[in-house]
Write a structure and sequence with these properties.
six-stranded parallel beta sheet; Rossmann fold; alpha/beta; single chain; 13 helices
C-alpha cells in the first residue's frame, strides 16, 4: 500500500499503477491553515487505521513524505506488524523547518528503505544528516500514467501549459515580463497557467490577467487538467533551484508533450537528451518556444521513445524495491 497525505500526488499514483500497490490519499479535512495541526493529527490516525485494517493483506507500506509529520506513524506501524516500510522523501522533507521537528534524525533512519528522487539531492542529504547506516536508493519519477482515456484539447493555435505552484523557486517575475513583451506576441501562441490563484502575488496576477494570450486557469479537476495538458504544444517546467526535480517534466514525458525546462545541473543530468532546456532566468525563451512549434513532430517522437525507454528501465531497475 502507498499512503500519501494530500488530495493528489502524481508520483504515488504512477508508482501505484506500475507496482500494483493500493494508493491511498488522505485528503485534508479543513481548508484553513489555522487547523493544519488538527489536519495532521487526523491524517495520523487515519493512516494507522488504514494499516491496521489491511494488516493481514499487505507486506509493503510506502509512506509518501512531502513536508509533514507522516514520519511519526512509523513506530506505531511497527507495532501493528512486520511490514517493509519505505519512506519516499520529497525534497521538502529535509528543509530547515521540517528537519528540526522533534526526533527527526531518529525517525528518518527508522524505515527499511529511503527513496530519493535524484542523485544530487541524495548526496546532499547523506552528507548533511550522516545517513551512513541507512539503506537509501534513488528512484526517479516514472513517466506519468494518464488516469483514463484522454480526449486531447483540439489545437487551432499552438499553446503551452505552465503547471505552476507559485513557489519561491519559480521565476515568475521573469516569466511575466517575457509574456508582456513583443517577443511573446510575435510567437503567436497561448499560455495557460494552472495552479491555485490565491497563492499568486496580487500584482503578478493582475499583470497576467491583463495579457491577451495568457489564461490563469486556477485549480483544475484532474480530467480537465489532463485534457488541457495532453493537447499542449509544450510544457513549461521552470525552477531556479538546483538539486530538485520537477513532476511536470515526467508528466510531459507521460503525455508525450515537449518539456521546456530550466537548465539546472540536476535537470540537464536527468533529462539532457530530450525536450528543450532554457536558461534558468529564461533568457532565450522566445527561441525555445519557436523551436518547439517549428519542430514539434520531431521533438515529440523523441519524447515518445524516451517514455518507452524510461518505463522499461523503471520496471527493470526499480520495480523489485516495492516487493
Amino acid at each position: 500500500m502507498i499512503i500519501s497525505w494530500g488530495s493528489y500526488i502524481r508520483r504515488s499514483c504512477s508508482i501505484s499503477v506500475i507496482t500494483g500497490l493500493r494508493d491511498i490519499h488522505i485528503s485534508p479535512t479543513f481548508r484553513s491553515k489555522i487547523f493544519k495541526p488538527l489536519d495532521y493529527l487526523m491524517a495520523f490516525f487515519k493512516t494507522i487505521a488504514a494499516v491496521y485494517k489491511e494488516r493481514k493483506k499487505i507486506e509493503v507500506i510506502v509512506l509518501v513524505s512531502p513536508p509533514n509529520i507522516i514520519l511519526y506513524t512509523i513506530p506505531f506501524i511497527r507495532v501493528i506488524g512486520s511490514f517493509k516500510i519505505i519512506l519516499d522523501c520529497h525534497n521538502g522533507t529535509f528543509s530547515d523547518f521540517w528537519s528540526k521537528i522533534p526526533f527527526f534524525r531518529q525517525l528518518i533512519k527508522s524505515p527499511d528503505l529511503l527513496l530519493f528522487h535524484n542523485e544530487d539531492f541524495k548526496d546532499e542529504v547523506e552528507q548533511k544528516f550522516h545517513l551512513v547506516d541507512v539503506l537509501a536508493k534513488v528512484v526517479p519519477d516514472p513517466p506519468a500514467i494518464p488516469t483514463g482515456q484522454i480526449q486531447r484539447k483540439k489545437i487551432l493555435i499552438p499553446y503551452f501549459v505552465f503547471p505552476a505552484s507559485f513557489a519561491s523557486d519559480e521565476p515568475l517575475e521573469v516569466l511575466v515580463s517575457y509574456l508582456e513583451s513583443s517577443d511573446f506576441v510575435n510567437n503567436e501562441c497561448f499560455v495557460y497557467i494552472t495552479g491555485p490563484k490565491h497563492k499568486l502575488d496580487l500584482e503578478l496576477r493582475n499583470r497576467l490577467e491583463s495579457i491577451q494570450n495568457v489564461t490563469l486557469t486556477g485549480f483544475l479537476a484532474n480530467q480537465e487538467y489532463e485534457k488541457l495538458f495532453s493537447g499542449a504544444t509544450g510544457i513549461f517546467c521552470f525552477t531556479t533551484k538546483e538539486n530538485t526535480q520537477l513532476c511536470a517534466i515526467n508528466e510531459a514525458i507521460g503525455y508525450e508533450r515537449v518539456p521546456i525546462y530550466s537548465a539546472t545541473k540536476t535537470l540537464k543530468k536527468m533529462y539532457g537528451t530530450i525536450g528543450i532546456a532554457v536558461n534558468k532566468n529564461l533568457i532565450g525563451l522566445d527561441k525555445c518556444i519557436k523551436n518547439c512549434i517549428d519542430n514539434q513532430r520531431v521533438l515529440q517522437r523523441g519524447i515518445k521513445e524516451e517514455k518507452s525507454r524510461r518505463l522499461k528501465l523503471w520496471n527493470k531497475e526499480y520495480y523489485d524495491l516495492f516487493s
